[in-house]
Amino acid sequence: MKSSRLLGAVVPALAAVAVVSPVNAQDPQRPPLSLETPTVEVIATTPLPGLGVPIEQVPSNVQALTDSAIEQRQAVNLSDLLSRTLPSVNINEVTGNPFQADLNYRGFLVSPLLGTPQGLSVYQDGVRLNEPFGDVVYWDLIPQNAISVVNLIPGSNPLYGLNSLGGALSLRTKTGAEYPHTSAQIYGGSWDRIGVDVEHGGYNDKIDYYFSGSYFDEDGWRDFSPSTVKQFFGKVGYDDGTTDLDLSLSVGDSDLTGNGVTPESMLDRRRREVFTIPDNTKKDMWMLNLTGNHMLNDAFRLGGNVYYRTNRIKTLNGDANDDYEDCFEDAEDDGLDPLDECTETAVNNRTRTKEDVVGAALQLSQLTERNQATAGVSFDRGKADFRQSAAEGVLDHRRGVVETEDEEIENQPGRHHHHLLI
User: Fold this and answer.
1) Which of 212, 192, 186 is nearest to 200 (CA)?
2) What pTM, to 2 d.p., does this model score?
3) Which domains does the chain have, with CATH numbers?
């Protein structure tokens, strides 16, 4: 009886193996069976870190980039990275400088150039990077080497504040607990381009730390168009499983030259020529940001941040006078040198801007079985002092401006900007 029962149990099992084995043998490319669940990509849908939402549950085409995708692209800056990677994003380098591009997303712009109608908001760890004067965004001041996750959220959402008509970019920076390693790279290319990126992170019990630095320098593909960008980012954090605190410092120092458009008649002779020089922008920025999150229980999370940001910007633009265009065209038509025929041809326009921003935010998130609710308040106070001056002169044979008159102040308004969002 025992033998018959054993035989009755073994025979069906052997038959099952006989059925399965030929199938696997006939399809060697078939992947092995796995009990692992598929990867669930969770994104942040608010400027501050929240409980996170699976990307497929967000009712819009949210696009996300992780650090691995950022590293693979090897882009020069964030605008270059987005244009290479994400659909509906493209850039326009009207100045000829890679760090001064206009980014276009579904017809809405975010740009470093004053006067451009801004339609996107950019946040780094809950801090709004749009400057108080003109809402511009400076790509050269964003530490790309320290970015962990990029989320591009489309649509007009009042959650992201002023001028978020086309959407918002939310950037998360790295921590030492997530990136406990040391890496460095050096690269070079045409126009004497050289770049260096280094980073180091680690953790010890409840404390983590992360530091990164970047250096970029090139002569530019056009005459008299050098650029230098220096960036530093550091973060120290504390995490005991319930409370998470991070104190970060961002520093940016850049010297960019983007000499703008050139008449076709000059480009026909030589593609590297520029119309007038220089068109230079120097920036010196640092930002201190303290962020914190505390799990009240399994369903509620309280988060907030306090930050201070300061930026000093100087521009020097060598421009032709308004009357120079007609004189230039007449001289060209007559086969004469415009620099010899036209007098009072140029002007040096200078601007100096001082911007200081301070802000704070508080956010409460609740996660239930079916829904997630988020409520919060933020306050930003910005102060911008702007000064513009001009000095008349003439163009030399390099098409640079030689000043012949003293510098005169044209306007010097002051501006304060307050932003309260609930």
Assistant:
1) 212
2) 0.83
3) 39-421 (2.170.130.10)
